[in-house]
Design a protein that fits this description.
alpha/beta, Serine Threonine Protein Phosphatase 5, Tetratricopeptide repeat, Rossmann fold, 3-stranded antiparallel beta sheet, 19 helices, 11 strands
């Protein structure tokens, strides 16, 4: 009887501030922060403070600070609690941290400050709050970009206005010579370009200056106002000149001939799918067309009979490591049955560990220099999927792991790991299609606005990969992909040959449609 009371008292104690402090010291997440499927702190690369700040748990953040957690402690990305609260629009937490003198200009490993992260997320309110507490408005990250340059690149005019109103310098040049004006013009953000143009008239430096992206006329600084017609003419001239140089705002992408499925299968309520597409990353170069790939694959999965309610899409900033982990390791196991077919699709960067040869999927918040902490191992992916109760699991990865370019990234200063990628063990109920060999890159198909692998994957599903029986199977699709992707890559003076694991899987009668 006494032992029962001891357990009850212990559980009650864990809800008190002292109990929370104990939980923090022991790293027992459940006793300090009930998991709400936003972030899983334990073993995720976050510290307890950065994790709970990202979740917006004001009371727990206060308790952690009161019990000794350093307010500027760094996680695996070199980010502080203020970075994460700024990134996730947690203004109540931002205010608590600023009131306790958090370093408003702390930089993560890629040089980003909390203001850079707020600008990336298009959060004008948080940006305003950070600036009111001394955020360095012209701080530059490792690519020499200021928060204004990030806003000009992403197209958020509200953040751009806040920054310009607070005196952001519009003539700062990035590592390739690009300015905020260049970025706004190159991405078609005319409203931001107009703000920059007006600001340049009152700032000492003659900007926009010509950069590597756009060779634009630099207006002379003067205090006179600029009328709307003049602004429009200058922007139009800059866009025209940039396009003539092949560097301006690209024309809008036309619909690809594979975007919409030409077939429809009966819905199967037992089937589940996870679709991940990451184009513009937090702090690394973008994976061109990856989110467009994922959107088209989702439409095709619906046509294949996967219920929309059973498909989870993680796009862009939603595809964090935590988002990937919780859906692969919790959502799928909690939902699939022994009648289920599970389809997992990933489009984005891959990365190799140069020491072990292991390959990783790189989430939106991933860091190639800290793969164990911030990325998701493909080996673990296959292990977790093979543990599902599902009848069959199909994986398609439009990524590569050589580090030699395309949809792969490496830690700074590291050479590509050509021919050293360890093949993952794919076995049991899991079949995996990947875009390229271990020493190759996964490239884009510019004319269609898709990854080359994904374009032919969808084209095959639309009927071109049918076998003699009129069905599209894993085997017939793989045969189609090997031929057409390799031929298209060769025409572009490259090598890319899709892979299928495990060996011999093409002989299994796995029907897709």
């Amino acid at each position: 009887m006494r032992s029962r009371w001891i357990v009850v008292l212990f559980l009650l104690a864990s809800c008190s501030p002292a109990g929370q402090a104990y939980g923090r010291r022991r790293r027992v997440v459940a006793r300090t922060a009930p998991v709400d499927a936003t972030l899983v702190c334990e073993g995720s690369g976050y510290t307890m403070l950065t994790c709970t700040a990202a979740q917006g748990r004001v009371r727990i953040v206060r308790n952690l600070l009161n019990t000794g957690s350093p307010i500027n402690e760094r996680d695996a990305m070199g980010a502080t609690a203020l970075h994460w609260a700024s990134r996730n629009r947690r203004d109540d937490v931002v205010q608590v941290l600023l009131n306790r003198h958090a370093d408003v200009n702390a930089k993560n490993r890629l040089g980003g400050t909390p203001l850079h992260w707020a600008a990336k997320q298009g959060d004008a309110q948080t940006a305003q709050l950070l600036l009111s507490h001394g955020a360095a408005i012209n701080a530059v990250n490792n690519t020499n970009w200021t928060p204004l340059m990030i806003a000009a690149n992403t197209g958020d005019s509200t953040v751009a206005k806040v920054l310009i109103d607070h005196g952001a310098q519009v003539g700062v040049k990035g590592s390739k010579g690009e300015t905020a004006w260049d970025l706004a013009i190159a991405n078609g953000h005319r409203d931001i370009a107009a703000m920059i143009l007006r600001a340049s008239r009152t700032q000492l430096a003659p900007v926009p200056a010509s950069g590597s992206i756009v060779s634009a006329p630099a207006p002379k600084p003067q205090a006179d106002s600029v009328d709307k017609a003049e602004v429009e003419k200058m922007i139009a001239d800059a866009v025209k000149k940039a396009q003539a140089n092949g560097a301006g705002a690209p024309p809008p992408l036309k619909a690809s001939d594979v975007d919409k499925p030409t077939y429809a299968s009966k819905e199967n309520a037992d089937n589940f799918a996870l679709v991940i597409g990451i184009e513009k990353y937090s702090d690394i170069p973008e994976a061109e067309y990856a989110e467009r790939d994922a959107a088209a694959v989702r439409d095709h999965l619906v046509a294949l009979g996967y219920p929309e309610r059973n498909i989870v899409s993680l796009l862009g900033s939603k595809a964090t490591k935590t988002g990937i982990v919780k859906n692969i390791e919790t959502w799928l196991p909690n939902n699939v049955t022994d009648k289920s077919t599970v389809f997992v699709y990933y489009s984005g960067h891959g990365a190799p560990d140069v020491k072990t040869g292991q390959s990783y999927l790189v989430p939106w918040d991933g860091d190639p220099e800290f793969l164990d902490d911030t990325a998701y191992p493909t080996k673990r992916l296959y292990e977790k999927l093979n543990e599902l109760k599902a009848k069959r699991v199909i994986v398609a990865l439009d990524s590569c792991f050589s580090g030699a370019g395309g949809r792969s990234v490496l830690a700074k200063g590291v050479r590509p790991l050509v021919n050293k990628i360890e093949a993952d063990a794919v076995e049991g109920k899991t079949i995996a299609l990947s875009a390229a060999g271990g020493d190759q890159v996964s490239r884009a198909y510019q004319e269609q606005g898709h990854g080359l692998f994904t374009y032919y994957l969808l084209r095959g599903l639309n009927g071109e990969a049918k076998n003699r029986s009129g069905e599209v199977t894993v085997g017939s699709l793989y045969g189609y992909l090997r031929t057409h992707v390799a031929d298209a890559a060769r025409r572009a003076n490259g090598d890319q040959t899709p892979q299928l694991l495990p060996a011999g899987a093409e002989k299994e009668p796995v029907r897709l449609r």
